[in-house]
What does this fold into?
Amino acid sequence: MIDNPSIHIVDDNRTSQGDLRNLLAAADRPGPGRTQPPAVGQGISSTHPVAEPHAVAPPPESAPAPPRARVLVIDDEPLIARILKRGLSRHDVVVASDAREALDWIRRGDSFDVILCDLMMPDISGIDVHEYLTRDYPAVASRVVFMTGGAFTSKARQFLSSVSNERIDKPFLLSQVNKLIDRRVAAANP
It folds into this structure.
């Protein structure tokens, strides 16, 4: 978990090396139905009984990996941007530290499946970004997902109630953001 007075994002990948060592050590211990392996140099013979194999269910068929998405993160908070870039690493993530940079990429023709945009930024806000995209790139405006810290102005509250774009409230789980991206990409590519 990353914790900062103004930032709280939970990374929900919690398996540690110690957990894996304990699992592996437990699997190697002799127990009921297990025998000690022969010492080095000894072959397996009738004096070393072989444990009966346990029935093992075949692994479940895994679903195909979700398609890799192209994601634009617009956030003036470098730590949030870095966390999202790392936490969404199975996708192609591009980070813009301000809205001007992000809008320049869009004007140049860069395409993104999902745009994660901080709502409250200095200079050009997420509201301004959405208004510009709605006017000049309406198909792109629908790909914006707003990230909010919860403390916003009455203008921001009114804006969020007037648009159909999704929003993510901070703090958020990276797994939730990945699921949101997967869902949006799957909907766009049936």
